């Protein structure tokens, strides 16, 4: 594979727009890669992995306590509605570019093709930071909820050390499940879709029927709570959007699994968009159901379980009912973390395939038996484990991990969209296209991402101390510095390939449609 001197001037045209079920293996070769992963995932499975990674039963439940103090019910509900609309714009714009470039590298490959090697390089590092931060955030959240479940059932005390141990066990489980191949991942994600939807219906339905007392609509949709230490309500409301923005991330998983998806040029694009709007609707219902069922706001926030949603279930349903529904949430979070490990490992594999990571020769290896990037799976969970270690020493570290996820992955979504807009007519869309809506939706997406990127670098609590500082900006700076330093080491070897990287015979066969 040889680097492309200036790929922004010669974007590779996709296959004929609208062609039904065109040869995705041939298309992958046109983009410069030999197929090595197993294409065993269907369209529903591709949608399911992004829906599972978004996981409303993970994001909404995990950060619900944060939302209770950063704006309260009004910001949680209306913030969810507004953020969901803007994220849908981001997803639509990203889906269009994914249709043109369906590879495991996803965002960084798109940026490289449309803007050049440096654009691809920095996009890749941001995307990788976000994906690895997401594994840490999701699985640590699952560990917190598992601790709350054990507390309800057997009086288990969820200390930071015990929570970290549970977290490591969950990481190990997800690593092992991902080693069995993409078919098992696809099956688990398909189950996950119905588990999430049925779980939301069960939780909301039970909370609507069983408790004797419910909050008023005015409380749920207008009550503003500020426990951040900041006095400006607009600033507090903006910070409170983290709950929704954190949950609405990870939908690039559909793109990362495109080399393992049939008809990926269409299915991966559809998977991104569908995962967002289905999560948008179901998440709003879940947040409303939880908030209506709050019995004592202050007591819920100070819950001994360490997880406010668990206290809502406990107050409204009793110990047995709360434990049963908490178990539903935990299983959903486990589905979510497993899907995120799959997406992150494909990013590690693809980035290593293009020689961007230290030790790339190891991380790009694929199992002959399962056609799964085994070393990439282990690296993904190991780094995620390291990211969560500060949670042993600081109660605010988990919030920092979630912010790292948002600050890493959100800008990475916007870069390919911005470069696609800059390319103008040089960008040739794939089978799934926005047509005349491409520019207005694209610019809306880029503007939104620019705003939230700045927003989530700002401190979330006042006064700002070592414990309350928002370390997302520090993490972003460290990654950019390391990426810049490593660029000078790896720039001669790094590069996305083109069809020109093949032999003359392969090029001739490609042109004749033989390959």
Model description:
The chain is an all-alpha fold and 515 residues long. The protein has a single domain (41-489), classed as Amino acid/polyamine transporter I (Up-down Bundle), CATH 1.20.1740.10. The chain contains 22 helices and two strands. The chain has a two-stranded antiparallel sheet with strand order 1-2. Helix 7 (117-154) crosses helix 8.
Please sum up the structure shown.
The protein is an all-alpha fold and 515 residues long. It has a single domain, classed as Up-down Bundle (Amino acid/polyamine transporter I), CATH 1.20.1740.
Q: Alpha-carbon distance between the termini? A: 18 Å
Show unreliable segments.
1-21, 500-515
Question: What Rg do the Cα atoms give?
Answer: 22 Å
H/E element string?
A: HHHHEHHHHHHEHHHHHHHHHHHH
Subcellular location: Membrane
GO cellular component, one term: membrane
Main location: membrane
Membrane topology: Multi-pass membrane protein
List keywords for this structure.
515 residues; mainly alpha; Amino acid/polyamine transporter I; 22 helices; globular; disordered C terminus
Give the topology.
Layout: H1 24-30, H2 43-54, H3 56-62, H4 64-69, E1 70-71, H5 72-100, H6 107-115, H7 117-154, H8 160-178, H9 182-209, H10 217-222, E2 225-226, H11 233-240, H12 242-247, H13 253-256, H14 264-292, H15 297-301, H16 308-353, H17 360-363, H18 374-388, H19 397-423, H20 438-455, H21 472-490, H22 504-512
Antiparallel strand pairs: 1-2
Helix pairs in contact: 2-9, 2-14, 2-16, 3-14, 3-16, 5-14, 5-19, 5-20, 6-7, 6-19, 7-8, 7-16, 7-18, 7-19, 7-21, 8-16, 8-18, 9-14, 9-16, 16-18, 19-20, 19-21
């Amino acid at each position: 594979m040889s680097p492309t001197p200036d790929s922004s001037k010669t974007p590779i045209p996709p296959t004929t727009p609208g062609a039904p079920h065109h040869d995705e293996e041939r298309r992958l070769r046109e983009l410069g890669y030999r197929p090595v992963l197993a294409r065993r995932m269907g369209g529903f499975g591709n949608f399911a992995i992004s829906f599972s990674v978004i996981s409303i039963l993970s994001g909404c439940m995990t950060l619900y306590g944060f939302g209770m103090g950063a704006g309260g019910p009004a910001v949680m509900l209306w913030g969810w509605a507004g953020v969901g609309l803007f994220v849908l714009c981001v997803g639509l714009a990203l889906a269009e570019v994914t249709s043109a470039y369906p590879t495991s590298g996803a965002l960084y490959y798109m940026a490289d093709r449309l803007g050049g090697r440096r654009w691809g390089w920095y996009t890749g590092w941001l995307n990788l930071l976000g994906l690895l931060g997401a594994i840490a955030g999701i699985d640590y959240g699952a560990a917190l909820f598992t601790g709350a479940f054990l507390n309800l059932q057997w009086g288990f005390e969820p200390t930071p050390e015990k929570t970290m141990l549970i977290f490591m066990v969950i990481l190990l489980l997800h690593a092992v499940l991902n080693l069995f191949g993409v078919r098992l991942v696809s099956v688990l994600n398909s189950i996950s879709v119905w588990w999430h939807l049925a779980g939301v219906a069960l939780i909301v339905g039970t909370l609507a029927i069983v408790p004797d007392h419910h909050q008023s609509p005015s409380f749920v949709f207008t009550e503003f709570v500020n426990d951040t230490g900041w006095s400006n309500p607009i600033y507090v409301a903006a910070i409170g959007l983290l709950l929704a923005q954190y949950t609405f991330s990870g939908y690039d998983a559909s793109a990362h699994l495109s080399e393992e998806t049939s008809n990926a040029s269409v299915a991966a694009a559809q998977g991104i968009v569908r995962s967002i709007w289905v999560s948008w609707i179901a998440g709003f219902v879940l947040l409303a159901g939880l908030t209506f069922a709050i019995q004592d706001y202050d007591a819920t926030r100070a819950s001994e379980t360490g997880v406010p949603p668990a206290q809502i279930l406990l107050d409204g349903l009793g110990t047995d009912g709360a434990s049963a529904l908490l178990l539903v949430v935990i299983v959903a979070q486990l589905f979510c973390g497993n899907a995120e490990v799959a997406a992150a490992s494909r990013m590690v594999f693809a980035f290593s395939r293009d020689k961007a990571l230290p030790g790339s020769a190891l991380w790009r290896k694929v199992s002959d038996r399962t056609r799964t990037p085994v070393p990439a799976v282990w690296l993904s969970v190991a780094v995620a484990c390291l990211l969560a270690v500060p949670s042993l020493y600081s109660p605010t570290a988990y919030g920092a991990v979630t912010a790292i996820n948002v600050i890493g992955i959100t800008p990475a979504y916007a870069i390919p969209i911005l470069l696609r807009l800059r390319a103008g007519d040089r960008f040739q869309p794939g089978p799934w296209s926005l047509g005349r809506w491409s520019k207005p939706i694209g610019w809306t997406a880029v503007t939104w991402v620019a705003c939230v990127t700045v927003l989530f670098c700002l401190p979330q609590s006042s006064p700002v101390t070592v414990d309350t500082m928002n370390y997302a900006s520090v993490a972003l700076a460290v990654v950019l510095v390391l990426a810049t330093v490593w660029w000078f080491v790896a720039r001669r070897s790094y590069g996305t390939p083109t069809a020109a990287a093949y032999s003359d015979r392969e090029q001739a066969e490609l042109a004749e449609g033989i390959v």
